[in-house]
Each structure stands twice: as structure tokens, then as C-alpha cells.
Amino acid sequence: MKVKLFGILTLVLAFFTINLFAEVKTKFFGYQWLRYTDIVLGTDKQGDSGISIPRTYLRWKMEDKDAGWVGEITLDIASEKGGQVVDATTSTITPTSVKGKVDFAIWPKYAYVDFTAIPILKDIDMKLRVGQQKNYFGTVELWEYPLIEKTITDLRKVIASADLGIALLGDLPEGYGQYELAMHNGSGYKNLDSNVEKQYTGSLMLLPISGLMLRGSYMINNQAAHGTDSKIKRASDFVAQYTINFLPVPMQILGEYVVVENPLNAGVGKSGVSEGYMLFGSIDLLDWMQLAFRFDNWNADTSKTNDETNLYIAGVNFKINENNLLQINYQLEQPQFGGYAETSHINTLMAQLKWSW
Amino acid sequence: MEKLKMLVLSVAMLLSFSVANFAVKLIKIDGSSTVYPITEAIAEEFQEVNKDIKVTVGISGTGGGFKKFTTNQTDISDASRPIKTSEQKQARLNGIDYIELPIAYDGLTVVVNKNNKFIDKMTVAELKKLWEPAAQNVVTKWSQVRDSWPAEKIKLYGPGTDSGTFEYFTEAICGAVGKIRGDYTPSVNPNVQVQGVAGDKNALGFFGLAYYVENMDKLRAVPIDGGNGPVEPTYETVQTGKYQPLSRPLFIYVNTRSLGKEEVQKFVEFYLDNVSKIAKEVGYIALPENAYELVKKKFAERKTGTTFKGAKVGVSVEELLSK
């Protein structure tokens, strides 16, 4: 753990040192989410409610075209529950009498360098990325949060949104798509040390006609420690998205299907196979107003019945100006346990101001 | 219910600040600072005769402009280079089709004093040796650039750092925008450079070809060897792309969806009708007249995509437009 943390900190320090002494082009960005959340469990039980700052991102981008590199550092200042004491495992707010962890952390979410001028690779629009970086899998790196909730692969922890490792990223000629081959740590950017084997991902995105995107992704993640039997988690994902831009009112529709085989979840009466899909649609009613809808179905174990979860989300986005977006979302999570009993529903109302500079 | 009312009220208050902006017909343009003077001048003239239309022209740079353009935030993108593969990809992903319209040429001229007899030509490597940051306070005599040149003290003039000329020159010669030695005399007014170089036989400067043509009696243009032998900057060598790496076509990219708005259609037509005259007025080189006819035809036919990306040096705009 210490070695890896030291590695990341060294990379962060290297960037700032370069920034100070070298003639590189540097840009600084910031993003913050200010959120109001009101959760009602079942029909009338009050869940978490309050205003929080779940995310603040501070981002530096640096490049030296002459030397052929581009780098990025993004610090993720996270506080989902407003800095309160939360249960160390579940991250739910604990009563004051119960000990837990403080819900606050600063993570180096991205800390990577792209080498853009490697001979041969450069000629085929390919670059090498080294460091803590995005995972290219399904919608996990494409999701720009038109709704406040995470995308299905992130929400159901199929794959982390960022991880440490190396990747080859390439563009198909004439903008017809992209592909990625990566070897990552496999435990996500918050748990760098929980696994000594590596995760391999491959993804191919095709853009056959303007607005249509098809993407297939595959992941193999050996969750075993050295010297133990391999426990290989496999995940396949397919995304189809169509953006209709020629109509007076632009629209987007997206479907994603993911299936995960995880031997750690298999056992008596358990298949260890999960699957789910996400359907999303948005309409840009006006330049400054967008409506968005989503339906997810997540089947945690395909051999069990009544263990599926449905998630319905409706949202409206108001673009106040270039740097400020107001989002209002209502979401209903419907676990199927007990045959859609209303008492198991989770109703969440969220209003969020995203601002950037 | 009370919470919902509070939310609705807050939304209404926030939106009241922004909704007013959408009452006027708005054309959003962003992109290259090099193309900016042309677009801005045309936008001004257009707004004089179309009082109900507001045109905003930003200067995020070509890359920054494409970032907005390919995510549907602007109607038109100013560009001092053709669209890149990664930008084409982003446009396809977001269902954005575009028309690529070359509008003028940018040609930079390296000038020396009329009485300077030793600089017959310069290679790109020599220019780099002279202007790169490492040359600051080190390369101070002409003999350090080429052995056969005299050991006379070099005096350098250049444009201000905010200019597109500065960006273009530093990128083309020193390899990155803004990469340049600091010990030269900068000026936002090219005429200051003209006076400086005209008054010192060991001086060198660079600016748009239009300024050189106006001052040919006092200055001499240095032929540049970009790898295919020395080429003198002239309207012909710039227009045919032979003068490399210091000449390039400039573009606007139009989102075809935006053409559904009458004001954007009208503006682009006005742009193409007037760019030849205005490009010259603001110091750029107009395309040949037949090229403008081809550009107008391309726009009228709504021909989408790029024909300029990856084009070979020396291929004329007309040839590329005919593709």
C-alpha cells in the first residue's frame, strides 16, 4: 500500500514540479456539486436528508507538445454525507453514540501521463497512458451525469470509474471510433492495495454513422492473492447509443447490457452471475432545458427469483449559464423482494447545482 | 409538498436570470484566435445590418473551440487547422455533422533589413536555433546561427504574445505555442517591427505577409527552407501551400443543425460574400476568387465532412474543394 501511495504522490509532485520549472502549457479547472437530498424509505420513513457537497474536483492539465506528453491530475474531494460520522463499511450515517469513520476524503482520482509521440503508435493515432486513469468499459467513462445517479456499471460496482495501471488508447481513422486495451490494478482508485493480480480490459467503440455509437467491452479481473486459487471475475458489456441531432429538438437514447460472472459470489443456490440493463433517454427541449429519463434493472444473482432491483429516474436539467447546471431528479428504487412491496421502496428527491470554472 | 414548492421557487429564481438571454436571436461562435479578427470584423458588419441578431465570437483557441462545437455548444467554430481525428470522433458521437469552409490564408513573413546582404535564406532548424527559449542570452550573434554569417549582434522583433501570429510562429518553428526566447522586442503593432527592422541592418522580425507587401521598399523577405528548398513568401506561394511551414489555410466549421436557424444560414452567406474583402483588410490573404466560388458551392450543397485533414503540402485549396 505504502509503495503504491508513494508512487502516486511522486507522480503528483512530479507534475507540480514540472509546472513550476518547465515551459509547459498548464490549465486549471474545478468542478463542484452542491446537492440537496431527501430520502423517504417505504411510504413514510424519513431517510437521509440534507445539503451536502459530495464532490469537489480540482483538475490540472499539463502538456508539452514538443516533448510529446499530456498529463492530468484530478483531486477528488469527496464527502457524500456532508462530513458526518458514517459506518466504516456501509457509509450510512451512524448514531452519535456509535464510532465510525468521518465521511471525508481526498483522493487522487486521476494522475496520469499520456505519451502521444511514441514512434509507430503516433502514426496510427495511438497513445500510451500511464498512471491512475479512467476505466474504459461500457458507459463508465462516457457518463457525463445527465442524471445525478451513477451509471449502472459504477452503481452496481461492476468496475470502478478509475484505476491505476497502463493503457493503450487509439482512435479509428476518420473518427469512426476508438479502442482501448488496459492493464489496471483492478480494485478501483480508492482501494489500490486489495488485490495483487491485475485487471485486463478491452473495449471497442464504433461510430458507423453520425450519432450512432456501438460499444463492446470485456473485463477479466483475477481477485485472488498470490499463492491462492484464481478467482477470476469476468464482465461483458454492450452499449448502443443514438443521438438524433437533425430534428429541431435533439434527443438521445441509450441502452446498456452488462453481465458479470464472479466466483466469489457463487455457492449453494447462488450462480455468481449478475446481469442488468440500463435504458436512458434525454430530450433537449430548449437550449437551456433538458429532460432525462432512465430505467435500470439489476439482477444480482440470475439463479435466484425476486432478487431484482428496478430503478426509475426522471430528471430535468437547467443550464443556467456555461458554468452552472441545476439538476432536479426524482428516483424510485424498487427492490423486488416481497413482490414490489411498497414498504421496500426507496424514494429519493435530489436537487444539485453543478458549477465549474 | 413544502419541499417541492421551495424547489420550484428556487428554480424559477435561478432561471429568471438566464431566460432573458434567449429572447434575442443568437449565433454562437468560438475557436481560433488567429481567425478571430476576420470573424469578428464580419460579425460587426453583419450586426450593423441585422440589428435583431447577436453574434458572439469567443477565442478559446482552435482546440477549445472544437471542444464546444463537437458537444453542440456553438453554431460555428473558427479554426486555424483542419479538424483532428479525435475531434471528428467526438462530433460523430454527438451526431454533429459539419461543413468545413476554408476562408483565407495566413502567411508569416520573416523579414530583415533591405541592406542585410548575408541572410540569403533560412532553414526551419536555423529559425528554431534563433528563436527557441534555449537561445535566450546565448545565441546573440549571427555567426552562432550559421558559421559563414558575421559575428554581428542580433536584434529581434516579434508580435505580442496575445496574437495569433505569435502562436502560429512559435508552434510552427519552436514546436509549441508560446515557446520562444524572451529577449526580443515585442509589439502588438506590426508597424513598430517594420520601423525596428528597417532601422537596423542586423535586425530580424516576423509578421503577416500583408505588412511586408506594404513595406517592400524598406524590408527584404527571407526565403524559408521547410525541407524542399528555399521558398520566398508571395501570394502565390502562400495560396498554393508551397511556402511551408509558415502558411496555412484558415477555416470556419458550420454545424448543419444550426443551419435550421435562419439567422445562422444568413450569417454564413454574408460571411462568404464578404470574407475576401475583410480578410485583406485585417492582414490576411484571401483565397483565389474561383476558390470562393467553390466554397459557396460546397456550402449551398451542404457538403459535410473534411477534405483538408491530412492534405499534402502544396495541394491547392481548389483541388481539395473539388474532392
- Rg of chain B over CA atoms, rounded to whole Å, is 23 Å
Query: What is the overall shape of chain A?
Result: globular
Uncertain residue ranges of chain A: none
Mean pLDDT of chain A: 86
Q: Report the helical percentage of chain B.
A: 25-40%
Give the tags.
heterodimer; A: 357 residues; 16-stranded antiparallel β-barrel; 2 helices; 7% helix; B: 323 residues; three-stranded mixed beta sheet; 12 helices
Describe the structure.
With 357 residues, chain A is mostly beta strands. Chain A is 7% helix and 57% strand. In chain A, the strands form 2 sheets. Chain A has a 16-stranded antiparallel β-barrel. A two-stranded antiparallel sheet of chain A has the order 4-5. The mean pLDDT of chain A is 86. With 323 residues, chain B is an alpha/beta fold. Chain B contains 12 helices and 12 strands. In chain B, helix 6 links the parallel strand 6 (155-159) and strand 7. Chain B is elongated, with a radius of gyration of 23 Å. Chain B starts with a helix and ends with a helix. The model of chain B has no long low-confidence stretch (mean pLDDT 87). The A-B interface holds A 23, 25, 38, 64-66, 125, 171-178, 207, 209-213, 242-246, 248, 250, 286-288, 318-322, 326, 328, 349, 351 and B 3-4, 7, 10-11, 14-15, 17-19, 22, 72-73, 85-97, 133, 171, 174-179, 256-257, 260.
Describe, in short, the structure shown.
The complex is a heterodimer of chains A (357) and B (323). Chain A is mainly β. Chain A is 7% helix and 57% strand.
Write the layout of secondary structure elements.
The complex is a heterodimer of chains A (357) and B (323).
Chain A: H1 2-21, E1 25-41, E2 45-64, E3 69-78, E4 85-86, E5 101-102, E6 105-115, E7 126-134, H2 152-155, E8 162-171, E9 177-184, E10 199-206, E11 212-222, E12 232-244, E13 251-267, E14 270-286, E15 289-299, E16 308-321, E17 324-335, E18 346-356
Antiparallel strand pairs in A: 1-2, 1-18, 2-3, 3-6, 4-5, 6-7, 7-8, 8-9, 9-10, 10-11, 11-12, 12-13, 13-14, 14-15, 15-16, 16-17, 17-18
Chain B: H1 2-19, E1 25-31, H2 36-49, E2 53-57, H3 61-69, E3 76-79, H4 85-93, E4 98-113, E5 122-123, H5 124-131, E6 155-159, H6 164-174, E7 185-187, H7 190-198, E8 203-208, H8 209-214, E9 219-221, E10 224-225, E11 230-231, H9 235-239, E12 247-255, H10 262-281, H11 289-300, H12 317-321
Parallel strand pairs in B: 1-2, 1-3, 5-10, 6-7, 6-8
Antiparallel strand pairs in B: 3-12, 4-8, 4-9, 4-12, 10-11
Helix pairs in contact in B: 2-10
